[in-house]
Amino acid sequence: MAYKKRLSHKEAVNRLAKYCVYQERSQQQVRNKCYELGLYRDEVEEVIAELITEGFINEERFAQSYVGGKFRLKKWGRIKILAGLQQHQLSNYCINKGMSEISEDEYLDTLDRLLEKKIESLAEENSYILHQKVARYVINKGFEPELVWNRIKETNN
Hints:
Layout: H1 9-22, H2 27-36, H3 41-53, H4 59-72, H5 78-87, H6 92-99, H7 104-121, H8 127-140, H9 145-156
């Protein structure tokens, strides 16, 4: 069985810097990548500290990028975005900073557009079943159930 060649500190930093330049990364993602590359725990923390110092890792910037992408591109709601940020083990400060990327008006507009689009795509005669299906769809995308039902009631009136 052939053994993998161990990376030097400089090689590890260079490879992980390229990994971070490709897209924003959280410390947890970089830490996982370090272990994949076969680095030991003390080496991992040194490499991460160096990447933070050089500006390759910035969790506040990562949180803002993550929230912006998941909300604007994937149309996720706050609940799903928050769960994703927590999986990256970010601090509450970074999570709050990221979540502030979503304006209330933009959030409600997105929710309304998702509701309209889903209603148009369904061929359901029974309005009760239609509303159930539409609500389930947007709630699964991470929007708050109470907000979803209030918006559905408003569009019905």
